[in-house]
Amino acid sequence: MVERRTFLAAAVAILAISSTAGFPAADGEESGSKSSPNEDFLEKAVSNIESKGSAISEFFKEVSKDKDPEHLKNIADYDKLILSLIYSIREDGSLFTDFILLLLDKAYPAKSDAFTETFKNKFTFTEPDVINVLQYLGSRKDYHYIPEHVLESLFDVLNMTTEEKFNKPVIEYGLEKGYAKGMKRLLGNKTTVNEKGDSLLHVAAENDYMDSLKTLIDEGIPVDVKNKLGQTPLYYAAKNEHNDAAKYLISKKADVDSRDEDGDTQLHIAAKLGDMEAAQGLIEAGARVDADNEGQTPLYRAAQYDQKNMMSVLLGNGANLHFNHNGKEPIHIAAASNHTTAVENFLRFEVKVDARSQDEMTPIHWAARSGLNQMVEFLLSKGADINSVGSIKRTPLHEAAYWAQYDTVKYLVAHGANISAVDYSGQKPTDMARYNDQYAMRDLLKSIEKKH
Ligand SMILES: *[C@@H]1O[C@H](CO)[C@@H](O)[C@H](O)[C@H]1NC(C)=O
Ligand SMILES: *[C@@H]1O[C@H](CO)[C@@H](O)[C@H](O)[C@H]1NC(C)=O
Ligand SMILES: *[C@@H]1O[C@H](CO)[C@@H](O)[C@H](O)[C@H]1NC(C)=O
Ligand SMILES: *[C@@H]1O[C@H](CO)[C@@H](O)[C@H](O)[C@H]1NC(C)=O
């Protein structure tokens, strides 16, 4: 059994060597009264090593083989030391990862492919090694020093290993085996795991890894955490018919109608993507079929993004084609929002082109009011009446004039709008110009009137 003194001496020797070799020295090396994270970390690593006789003797054999401290002059020497350390302690059934990570940081003070290469080419991680590391990372509560770049490199190596051996990325592997804490630690400061912006909780929910799912929630990952598309873990659980996972998430206050930053619910998102499985699953989990986002329901989203099958599914589940929002139906909102595809799909599902909103306005009134000539043109092509009148007998031209839509006034007149139409109080489109002191609009209409 080697004595404590010897270990400390060895550790100090390594620190000394590292500074002569041009690696950054550890903080607090000068034995200051304040113990730095690094020094603390080293202390712990050393006492950790001390408790494992056989591993240490192996380690020592390797370090003391060459009495010359120049032994550890370059990265290759560090690799040798690190690898031999890993190999020897593997026999003990555990990795002294604190210490190894410290050495890694010394050998590779910044993120480098060289580190990954070293492991790839010179060392073969076995399944127990991977498990060891993940267990180790998850079991530690007290340490505070694993540099991000070391974690990143470690991640790459583990990812490579699990891909090779188990045909899945380390995240899936680790969560499947229940090493949720280790995975969280392995990600370091990162909270997402792929280009979709999924969190660990998404992966656990998507794959029905219940143990990890529970642990991650206990670890404080917000139950309705969203990826880039705004999808929550519950979305994934519902989509994949993982009922237990879905129930568990809901029991932890997950909201099946959780909204993204644009106010869309999970079902809106599924509708927009045409994600049929998700829509079915979400509805079964209790999602509101007619969830309202400023009058735009999931059915609206499906119409807008031309998801016709989705429209059928939603209608089959009771979605309302005539959903009322402040007196307007979806087709009126679509006309006012220039959502041509949505209008087209509503018509396809047999909404009337002259459907009436509150005040008896038709879609073309709304398009005219918003100055959307292309929408006006589209509605006319679908049989809309250019002179249709609302409850106060105003035509689309009245609306365009009132709202100062110059181009639309011109367009409507050019396409047969009646410049002499009068509303319930006898006012013509020209009179509308009065309302907002629109002198330019008045002049425009007067000049049009003269021509007629
Ligand atoms: C893990 O490995 C796979 C396959 O090699 C790769 O596609 C994926 O991007 C890797 N993951 C990360 C986070 O690097
Ligand atoms: C990672 O997080 C730690 C603790 O919150 C912080 O001190 C460190 O600067 C972060 N590192 C990076 C690279 O963002
Ligand atoms: C309305 O949508 C059409 C395409 O359908 C587009 O060309 C036009 O620029 C849009 N109009 C406005 C005002 O955004
Ligand atoms: C235009 O509106 C006026 C007033 O309502 C009506 O007398 C006239 O017949 C309309 N003209 C056309 C072409 O519809």
Automatic annotation (TrEMBL):
Stretches assigned to coiled coil: none
SUPFAM superfamilies the UniProt entry points to: Ankyrin repeat (SSF48403)
Keywords recorded for this protein, A-Z: ANK repeat, Repeat, Signal
Xref: PROSITE patterns: ANK_REP_REGION, ANK_REPEAT
Stretch forming the signal peptide: 1-22
Domain of life: Eukaryota
Ranges: ANK repeats: 196-228, 229-261, 262-294, 294-326, 326-358, 359-391, 392-424
The keyword Repeat is annotated on this UniProt entry: yes
Pfam families the record matches: Ank_2, Ank_4
Name recorded for this polypeptide: Ankyrin 2,3/unc44
